[in-house]
Amino acid sequence: MELIRLVIVEDDVAIRNLLADVLKQKGGTIVGTANNLLDGMALVKETLCDCAVVDIDLAGDQALPLIELLEELSIPFVPITGLTLANIDSPRIRAMPLLIKPFDSHDLLDAIARASQMN
Prior knowledge:
This protein is α/β, with parallel strands linked by helices. It contains 5 helices and 7 strands. The strands form 2 sheets. Strands 2-1-3-6-7 form a 5-stranded parallel beta sheet, with helices on both faces. α2 (about 35-45) packs parallel to α3 (about 65-70). It is globular, with a radius of gyration of 13 Å. The mean pLDDT is about 95.
């Protein structure tokens, strides 16, 4: 992975820390993390980043407002989830190329590369 500034928005601290560790080991720079929707939105507004990794279910809040903000700011993102498609309320999120937990670091890096190329 080329040097890239990343934001991670994930409500599970263990997963958030694991994502950060993997991405740092692969050459990424974690410029911020958040564990809920509001903090994630504030972080994206205040931080210069190249890509975001976003859990679509943040302690029961679906991340659609955050995804819309990322799109508005032209920031690539990788939506991740442990939910099945049937448990995702938003048809718009269900239609996205979701990275389903558990996933390995190769899948994560590929998803980041694809998202970054799309913008």
